[in-house]
Design brief:
Elements: E1 6-16, E2 19-21, E3 28-31, E4 36-38, E5 52-57, E6 63-68, E7 71-72, E8 85-87, E9 99-101, E10 110-117, E11 122-133, E12 136-138, E13 144-147, E14 152-154, E15 157-159, E16 169-174, E17 181-187, E18 190-191, E19 204-206, E20 218-220, E21 229-237, E22 240-251
Parallel strand pairs: 13-22
Antiparallel strand pairs: 1-2, 1-3, 1-11, 4-9, 5-6, 5-10, 6-7, 8-9, 10-11, 12-15, 14-20, 16-17, 16-21, 17-18, 19-20, 21-22
């Protein structure tokens, strides 16, 4: 899954004038710079005649998107949301008024309201873009097993709107001892194999061609008994940092 800067959403269901408008039962997470769905729906389809749906920023009343007179009204959107906020038009007749917000920005953080009006009743739900994570670093879901003498890959992928050229530093360290041991360093768009602790020198390398894709995995050659343990991949970009750990289990 494409994961690195992230936005956390909290959704509240509000009942007004008898119409229940709903959102998801759990918070949502999405990467900054990608797309996120702001949920808004009713349990039963509503008559299209007289139906109006408004998405607004709660704090400023800025109009994010409008459905009116049987169609979406992009010309009514505030300029910042034009070409970025869209209804699932074919789903509206089924009672689904969710909004897709593309190319997420830091300034999208805040509260949104989805207000549904019919000829007889109305209701709304609130959606909060709660937090922005600039970096998301992912690794292996499970421990890695290897026999002595084998080569293994320690996984570290960065999902971010920041290009790899702008990463100030990516370091791999062995962390399960009294002090961290530097395994390999990437800094200012360059790998520094000579910076590796002597235990790892000439045995570890980045997949250089993969770095532009945000892949900072490393190959550890000729696994030794003492290589067993916990490794951390830590990424620094400006004021932001994130890390992931990988466990290597040596067998045989």
């Amino acid at each position: 899954m494409d994961l690195l800067m992230f936005i956390s959403l909290t959704v509240i269901t509000v009942i007004s004038d008898g119409l229940s408008v709903r959102g998801p039962s759990v918070p949502l997470v999405a990467p900054l710079g990608s797309s996120v769905i702001l949920p808004c729906y009713v349990d039963e389809p509503l008559l299209m005649e007289g139906l109006e749906v408004e998405w607004r920023r709660k704090e400023s009343e800025t109009l994010v998107h409008l459905f009116q007179d049987g169609e979406s009204r992009p010309e009514a959107q505030q300029q910042d949301y034009q070409d970025r906020a869209n209804f699932f038009t074919e789903e509206i007749k089924h009672g689904n008024f969710s909004l897709r917000l593309d190319n997420l920005r830091a300034e999208d953080k805040g509260e949104y309201t989805c207000t549904v009006h019919t000829q007889k009743e109305s209701g709304e739900t609130e959606v909060q873009i709660k937090d922005v994570e600039r970096l998301l670093v992912s690794g292996s879901d499970r421990s890695i097993s290897a026999s002595v003498g084998e080569d293994v890959t320690l996984n570290c992928s960065v999902d971010s709107h920041i290009t790899p050229e702008d990463f100030e530093q990516v370091s791999w360290k062995k962390t399960d001892e009294d002090e961290d041991i530097l395994v390999l360093l990437y800094e200012n768009n360059e790998a520094f194999p000579d910076s590796s602790n002597e235990r790892y020198r000439d045995r570890v390398e980045f997949f250089t061609a993969e770095i532009p894709k945000g892949n900072f995995s490393v190959r550890l050659k000729s696994v030794r008994t003492e290589d067993k343990g916990v490794y951390m991949c830590q990424v620094f970009a400006g004021r932001d940092s994130a890390n992931v750990t990988v466990v290597l289990e040596q067998l045989g």
